[in-house]
């Protein structure tokens, strides 16, 4: 395997590819957004707006690790630093990646 192939398959690159995929899905749906992810993204991988509603997205391209309450709590902390009316989203490749506790926590938050 070449160094390029190793980098292409790295967890960081897989995360960036997932961010680009989510951004493309949104853009294709005429939703204005931009990738902000990177080492200093402060918990926001994508930000955008649809019909005057701002949103932030944290992308988790996890294949072996589940998204638990701690991730929901982290995005809530990030959301608390945003303007009123901003919504937050945690994007994952499958709903199966969310633990029951994470789903319950996300559903009960305003």
Automatic annotation (TrEMBL):
SUPFAM superfamilies: Restriction endonuclease-like. One of its GO terms (cellular component) is mitochondrion. It is found in: Mitochondrion. The keyword Mitochondrion applies. Keywords: Mitochondrion. It comes from the Eukaryota. Signal peptide: none annotated. The keyword Zinc-finger does not apply. Its main location: mitochondrion. One of its GO terms (molecular function) is DNA binding. Residues 15-108 form the Restriction endonuclease type IV Mrr domain. GO terms for biological process: DNA restriction-modification system; double-strand break repair. This is Restriction endonuclease type IV Mrr domain-containing protein. It comes from Diversispora epigaea. The lineage of its organism: Eukaryota, Fungi, Fungi incertae sedis, Mucoromycota, Glomeromycotina.
